[in-house]
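User: quick one, sequence for these tokens?
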């Protein structure tokens, strides 16, 4: 089988499976095994795929046809220009979460702000903030010890080894003097329609009861005693939830802004 034949057949198979990015996914899979880029691939379409690689290529192709996310197949996902390790124990990073990083970088924080990433998962927020804001003191928590292990590996891999990771149910074991708390908690209601790929991700990292707001409600109750006066709470949620979130926040927080999937609040 040549590269061109593989791309043609696999694109058809992926399209039949309902994969919108069929050809791109086929290119990504074969590039990952050949350790080549897309430009090389397009220039060598007539080259035969070696017998040593073909069985592995067909295996990962079949996995993708079953709608397993490419990030889990390859074991990595790009976020904010960096490659992070991922596994089925953690949620796959979404591009929407990059907005949360942008909003925190734009906040009027102290010279050496203390920042907590609640529900860190793979560690993308904590690691990215530490690298983008090297003057900051970043901590990261998660209720899942398996997720924390992956987050720690990402911190080591990307050179953000000064982050303090700890196991905690939301803010149960957190300190009391943060300048900023960041949270990308589970917020998807189980009644919402999701892609088939979501079935491969940890449900506890995606879904939440009470219209997806149960953890966000608890976070707003816990945050006042952990955040400095004037400190910021920055969280990700679905835009259709923000009206309710603003009402939940009213007793102790001033609403600052909403940008895409990100909302910013300040402690009164």
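Assistant:
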């Amino acid at each position: 089988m040549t590269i061109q034949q593989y791309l043609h057949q696999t694109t058809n198979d992926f399209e039949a499976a309902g994969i919108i990015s069929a050809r791109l996914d086929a290119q990504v899979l074969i590039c990952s095994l050949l350790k080549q880029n897309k430009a090389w691939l397009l220039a060598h379409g007539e080259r035969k795929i070696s017998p040593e690689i073909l069985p592995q290529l067909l295996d990962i192709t079949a996995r993708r046809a079953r709608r397993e996310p490419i990030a889990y197949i390859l074991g990595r996902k790009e976020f904010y220009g960096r490659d992070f390790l991922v596994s089925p124990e953690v949620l796959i990073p979404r591009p929407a979460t990059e907005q949360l990083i942008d909003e925190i970088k734009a906040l009027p924080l102290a010279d050496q702000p203390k920042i907590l990433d609640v529900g860190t998962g793979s560690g993308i927020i904590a690691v990215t903030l530490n690298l983008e804001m090297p003057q900051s003191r970043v901590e990261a928590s998660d209720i899942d010890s398996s997720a924390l292990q992956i987050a720690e590996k990402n911190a080591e891999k990307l050179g953000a080894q000064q982050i303090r990771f700890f196991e905690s149910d939301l803010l149960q074991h957190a300190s009391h003097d943060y300048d900023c708390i960041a949270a990308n908690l589970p917020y998807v209601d189980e009644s919402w329609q999701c892609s088939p790929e979501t079935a491969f991700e940890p449900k506890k990292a995606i879904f939440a009861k009470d219209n997806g707001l149960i953890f966000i409600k608890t976070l707003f109750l816990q945050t006042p005693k952990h955040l400095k006066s004037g400190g910021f709470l920055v969280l990700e949620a679905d835009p259709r939830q923000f009206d309710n979130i603003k009402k939940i926040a009213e007793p102790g927080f001033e609403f600052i802004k909403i940008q895409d999937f990100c909302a910013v609040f300040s402690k009164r």
